[in-house]
Amino acid sequence: MAKVKLTKNELKRQKDMLKRFQRYLPTLVLKKQQLQMVIRQVEAEEAAKAGEQTSLLDDLARWIAVFGDNQCLEDLVIITGIDTSTGNIAGIDIPVFEKIEFEEVPWNLFHYPLWVDAGVERLKKLLALDAEVRILQEQKRLIEEELRITTQRVNLFEKVKIPEAKENIRMIRIYLGDQQTAAVVRGKIAKSNLVEV
């Protein structure tokens, strides 16, 4: 704890700081709660997308197994770009998935099996879900980092700054009260000395 001046000006400064901390703390607590809620939503959305991705992957594997052809679908699906936008949650910018773009790759209908159209579509959906999951993971990482910082600030205010300001105010009041009492006593002693003279 820093050395505090025991003056009326310092008392006013400490009171102003305490008022500022107490006014700012509820905002931080609200931000912390909002970030926790958003993290739960992102986790739920990520789990749903991952489940959808797993079922789509199983469906694609069955298609390939049924038709017994090991042709490489990856050669027919080429990602040209993933479009994202920027969203704002509790004052932080996060990436938001918009769409994924694929290059149109022509294929020889005589060279590939009949199910290749359905397989390519499922693979595109699978890659889009994979991109969404990766962006959701990035959102979660950014929000968790902001939550960590906000939690540190809340703890700093609750456990350090507010109690420190209250203790400083208490010490200054005691000191100023003692000084006032001492001044009154000195005045009475001086008055009684004047009366005796």
Descriptive report:
With 197 residues, this protein is an alpha+beta fold. The protein has a single domain, classed as Helix Hairpins, CATH 1.10.287. The chain has 2 helices and 2 strands. Strands 1-2 form a two-stranded antiparallel sheet. The protein is rod-shaped. 12% of the residues are buried.
| Strands in their spatial order, largest beta sheet | 1-2
Radius of gyration, whole Å:
34 Å
**Whole-number tally of structural domains:** 1
Q: Which fold name fills CATH's third level, the topology?
A: Helix Hairpins
* CATH class categorisation: Mainly Alpha
CATH architecture: Orthogonal Bundle
Could you list the spans in which at least 5 consecutive residues all have pLDDT below 50? none
Number of helices in the DSSP assignment: 2
Give the N-terminus to C-terminus distance in angstroms: 49 Å
Strand content: 5-15%
Specify the overall morphology.
rod-shaped
Major sheet attributes: 2 strands, antiparallel
Number of strands: 2
Instruction: Give the H and E element order.
Output: HEEH
Helix-and-strand structural type: alpha+beta
Q: Percentage of helical residues?
A: over 70%
Mean pLDDT: 87
